[in-house]
Amino acid sequence: MTINAFAVLAGWADSSMSSAAYTINIPTQLPLSFTIPGLSGVARAIVKDSVSPGCTALPNCLIVGGSFTSAGGVAEVNNIVKIKSDGSFAALGTGMNGLVNALAIDSAGNLYAGGFFTTAGGVPAIKVAKWNEASSSWSALGTPTNPGMSVENSTVLALALDTAGNLYAGGAFRRADRSFVDRISKWDGTSWSSLDDGVDDSVYALAVDSSGNLYAGGDFFTIGDSLVRPFVAKFVTSISSWF
User: Fold this and answer.
1) What is the average pLDDT across 201-207?
2) CATH match of 147-243 with 2.60.40.10
3) Is the pLDDT of residue 27 over 80?
4) Residues sharing a CB contact under 8 Å with residue 101, sequence separation 6 or more, in sequence order
5) Domains of the chain: which residue ranges?
6) Are strands 232-236 and 241-242 parallel, antiparallel or unpaired?
């Protein structure tokens, strides 16, 4: 058993777009990758944007990440693209130099992307990066000397945001900004930190509840200090401990 995802966006604007020129119908259970008309490759992550300028009214916008170079006739989008409410495609800077596996967007319209890349918009950003909506530019999450996750053959596979704006990343990485975190970590806007010693294998899915507690799913068997929780676990943020 492996937990790959906790929630899936099925369609766009509640599966119908009567006033838009573009329709996406996504299966209720996604495979590892899926196709979207107009992409030169495959998509691996998708998130609705209802807060950025031009995206607040239905049917809103979509951000799509994956493995592709062009989208809807727009060249060199490089693994990430915005689909506007009118169905047109727009690049986010010059994109990433590797695939994008996970996306999350905050209440200000800032976008977070995770995957297997080392630059975003030409800026060094190892496995995770932030698209700053106000400046329309990418930035790294971490120190200039090691901006993101470990450089080895590791990847970010899941992202989640809580209501306080903290970003959680899960995947196959061992370090975040030089600190050992074991496959799951929290970014508080300034630095990465461990979640009670992490987990013993890859994390594929993350979700946050209304109380700010984090849920993780993946291939792991033990979490924290040898606590047995096969495949799915809860991190209680009020006590900073796995349950």
Assistant:
1) 95
2) no
3) no
4) 44, 45, 65, 114, 115, 116, 155, 156, 157, 158, 171
5) 1-140, 147-243
6) antiparallel
Determine the Cα angle at 132 with ends 79 and 62, to 5°: 50
The token duo for 202 is 């890859």
**Which conformational region is residue 50 in: left (phi greater than 0), alpha (psi within -120 to 50 degrees), or beta?**
alpha
Give dist(CA 203, CA 173) in Å, integer.
9
Q: What is the pTM of this model?
A: 0.88
Q: What percent of the chain has pLDDT over 70?
A: 84
Q: Is the CA virtual torsion 171, 40, 77, 85 positive or negative?
A: negative
What pLDDT is recorded for position 140? Answer: 93
109 has pLDDT over 60: yes
Helix/strand/coil percent split, the chain, to 5: 0, 40, 60
At residue 78's C-alpha, the angle toward residues 72 and 123, to 5°, is 140
